[in-house]
Fold this protein.
Amino acid sequence: MNTESMRFDPAPGWRTLLLQWGRWRVLVGVTLFAVLASMGLTLLLLQALGRSQSIPVGLAIAGVVPLVIAPLVFNVLIKLVFEIESTRAALHRLATRDALTQTYNRGYFTERLDAEAVRALRTGQAMALLMIDADEFKSINDRYGHPVGDRVLQQIAQACQSSLRPYDLLARFGGEEFVVLLPETTLAQACEVAERVIAAVAGMKPDTLSVEPLRVTVSVGVAVLSSTDSGGTALLHRADAALYQAKRNGRNTWAC
């Protein structure tokens, strides 16, 4: 599984492990289990009936029958299970990920923000939020077209992700705006992350096939959870206000 935002992904269950193991490995495993179970039960039955002399023949029959029948029967069932679980995993990804950038989407981010805010307030741990907005992005769309703009957004997302820890949560909040949830992060640490994000984006060389080199920058608003907050909404509003302050300060910078 991708390590991105691993803190916020569901713990791997039997469904995930099943898909990771692969259909044919599962089939071999199930067949082997059926053979061993059949031989074990046959051995116990023959011993209970006092037919010790029949054990070699009984074990041979008990091993061959499931070895032939199990793959035929279980192949259909396992194929159906894999199709169902693959569809379920795809639907979960569609429900939680932004189709363009493959970061988390706004709905999933809002859900996790509230949950993490409640947890941080209960435990007294620090938590921070970054609001990131591409500077003068409309001019990129107007001048080069939306396909170029889409590619720039994808590369901004990649640059942001490269500046984060595996358990930080990056999401596309809307348009050219991204948010980052930083668990167990103080204001000073969040400002350092903001500086890394700004530097990573400014250092990009957008692969847009444009005849002109593009210079892309972002502005970042930084906010930390307060003990007086009741949830994540107030934190989000403060980060948004800080973002507008960064814009007023000349863009390509951060504010808190």
